Amino acid sequence: MAQGGGGIAAERANPSGEDRISVLPDDALVLILLHLDTAAAVRTSVLSRRWRRVWTLLPELRFDFSPEPHPVASALAVHEAALRFLDVGALDAAPESVAAWLPVAANRLSGRLNFENRAPPGRNGDGEEDGERGAFELPCFKSATTVSLDLGFLRLAVPAAGVFAQLTELRLVRVRICGPCKLGDAVSSPRCPCLQRLTVHQTQGLDNITIRSESLLRVDLNAVSGLQQFNVVAPALKELTVRHCFFRSRTQPIADISAPQMGVARVDRRGFSSKS
Amino acid sequence: MAAPESGDGNNGAARMVTLISSDNTRFEVEAAAASLSQTLQLTILDGGGGGGDGIPLPNVDSATLSKVLEYCIKHAPAAANGGAPNATAVDRAELERFDNEFVNIDQSVLYSLIMAAHNLEIEGLQSLVAKKVADMIKGKSPMEIRRTLGFPDPTPEEQAEMNAHMLEYGWAYE
């Protein structure tokens, strides 16, 4: 053992017995780890047997932007507790690897998910090589309240079934929706009974969005390219923003909006034919 | 403007309660300060702790309790304002200065405080002391953390276990 760490050596506890911090209850140790980033918290598991599983009780996991293979997959395989917050940053994630951990998170999460994938410049969804990359399916978040996915133009399939029972806020950014478009169905009341806020930005592959929701308060669509038809029946809707959505439409796009409570509507009317 | 020490000025004397440490020292303190403890709050709301009775705290010694109460007395006015939406920047800066100074303490005292804050459920103090330990851990290797936190040196067997564990958790070390 190295000599000369004066202050440290002076603080060293009884060399024979248990160190004093390790006798603290799990809850107190978890509070300490909550102030660390998740990787640092995980590293405390090496300290001793007492500390091995403390980090697996953390209710919040945060991962800095990381290349593949992403640590979130390994972490969720060991982590045990219910999650109230999961924050994941990825650098050019592969769809298969997201598909490996996202459903696990969906099962475990009772609060917020924030996933941001940074794609390399140029992969903006228009490139040919992107077409060869696979897609993954949006898992059903049964108890999450907020889901924010900034996918860096990964391809996402929206499932035809499954109820997002607690979801109040859904945010999709830089997503390429593939397959038959089920988004409108998925966010409508039968499958999203609590959804209050829907945000869709810089997204492709959505040509038709039809939403019937009792709960929606705010809808914000920005740069949803190729949108042909947008129908909303939302009696509680207060705020609707639709911008830069109809640039690439070859035919006259159609919007039909029924929202008697609406206070604020910011609709970019370029090429917009409203039936209402 | 109004002096900060006006707590017992206008409405007559503030209600006091007595807390008794494990070594039988009695501490008389304003009910509002003691009520920062979720554990004590219920007893105090029920009218306990007044008069000659006192609330025994068999898990907290007098040195630790004195320190805990120092925190509670300082933070009680802001807590009474419901997180003090009208607190001035000066007030907040003063509390922050107090907090920083407050946790500048010996490790053994720090651990006693963590235990007491945990048992008494004083949320602000729990977070403050937890953050202090987290700051001691940040940026250190496992061996440095062990030394900082006063772990005994690992036995060869423990060392082997640590090495194997680090291999298994390689993803956390990148």
From TrEMBL, chain A:
Pfam families for the chain: F-box (PF00646), LRR_At5g56370 (PF24758)
Gene3D superfamilies: 1.20.1280.50
CDD domains assigned to the protein according to its UniProt record, in alphabetical order: F-box_AtFBL13-like
Range of residues in the leader sequence: none
Boundaries of every F-box domain copy: 18-54
PROSITE patterns associated with the record: FBOX
Name of this protein: F-box domain-containing protein
Gene: ga28363
TrEMBL record, chain B:
GO annotation terms (biological process): jasmonic acid mediated signaling pathway; protein ubiquitination; ubiquitin-dependent protein catabolic process
InterPro entries from the UniProt entry: SKP1, SKP1-like, SKP1-like_dim_sf, SKP1/BTB/POZ_sf, Skp1_comp_dimer, Skp1_comp_POZ
Annotated SUPFAM superfamilies: POZ domain, Skp1 dimerisation domain-like
SKP1 component POZ domain residues: 16-75
Keywords associated with the record: Ubl conjugation pathway
Pathway note: Protein modification; protein ubiquitination
The keyword Manganese is assigned to this record: no
Domain SKP1 component dimerisation: residue ranges: 124-163
Protein family: Belongs to the SKP1 family.
Stated role: Involved in ubiquitination and subsequent proteasomal degradation of target proteins. Together with CUL1, RBX1 and a F-box protein, it forms a SCF E3 ubiquitin ligase complex. The functional specificity of this complex depends on the type of F-box protein. In the SCF complex, it serves as an adapter that links the F-box protein to CUL1.
Subunit-level organization: Part of a SCF (SKP1-cullin-F-box) protein ligase complex.
UniProt name for this protein: SKP1-like protein
Gene: ga14711
